Amino acid sequence: MASRRAKHPCSCSATRWWTPATTTRSPALSPGPTTYYPYGLDFPPRGAATGRFCNGKTVVDALSHRHLSSGDLLGLEYVPPYTTPGLNGTALLGGVNYASAAGGILDETGRHLGDRFSLSQQVLNLESNLNAIRSQFGDEDDRSGYERHLARSVAVMVLGGNDYINNYLLAPLYDSGDRYTLDEYAGLLLDLYARQILVSLPASLTTH
Q1: Does 2 reside within a domain?
Q2: d(Cα 48, Cα 79) in Å, to the nearest integer?
Q3: Residue 110, domain member (yes or no)
Q4: Neighbours of 200 (CB within 10 A)
């Protein structure tokens, strides 16, 4: 539950991709109840729902935001969420937030909370944007500009917590706790995560 007392950065399932360019801050438009008050009530500057199950910044926000005086490290503005209307063309070059509250590595995770983007869908969303970004660099035979752009980008993923909180530990809504031991479940998550990220995404985003 959101609380004004919890001022520390909070975490949730998140996939964000930044490039050296900066973008204008935009509140996250994520399916589900997290687009409503009280979520985001401590989010700067005035408090607004962010599409996350928390009241303020996530860990990734604290790393990225341009106000270095508040402890943020990379000096970038908040990247717009994938669902932002009109987010296409050159607007994609500054980075996109693919996070979805309640989404997990497993497609079933968080289904009791409503619509969300699981990791597999977040990867598909990223791939669709990469195709659009590739077209911004002209000739398909000349990939050097596109590859340089990706090589200078930063991909940050915070995943897995929801697969326990909103799946494995949530009997009787989910039967994963009966079907897997803790070690087996961890292995399942790691295997799927590796296949989604290392196989599906370009090497430029997974090796730098």
Answers
A1: no
A2: 15
A3: yes
A4: 14
- Which amino acid, one-letter code, is at 141? D
Cβ(174)–Cβ(32) under 8 Å? no
Does residue 7 lie in a domain region? no
Burial 49-80 (b: 16+ CB within 10 A, else e): bbbbbbbbbbebbbbbbeeeeeebeeebbbbb
- What is the count of structural domains for the chain? 1
Q: Is 135 exposed, middle or buried (0-12, 13-18, 19+ CB in 10 A)?
A: exposed
pLDDT tens readout for residues 145-201: 888 888 888 888 888 899 999 999 999 999 999 999 999 999 999 999 988 887 666
**Contact between residue 150 and residue 93 where contact means Cβ atoms under 8 Å apart:** no
101 close to 161: Cβ distance less than 8 angstroms:
no
Would you say residue 4 lies in a domain?
Answer: no
Average pLDDT, the chain: 75
Q: Cα-Cα-Cα-Cα dihedral of 11, 15, 156, 160, to 10°?
A: 60
Whole-number Å distance between alpha carbons of 43 and 96: 19
Residue of 83, 76, 77 whose CA lies nearest to 99: 83
| H helix runs in 20-104, sequence order | 59-64
57-81 tens-digit pLDDT? 777 777 666 554 454 567 777 777 8
Residue 35 and residue 81 in contact, taking contact as beta carbons nearer than 8 Å: no
Residue numbers of the domain that contains 166? 14-141+152-203
In single-letter form, the type of residue at position 129 comes to N
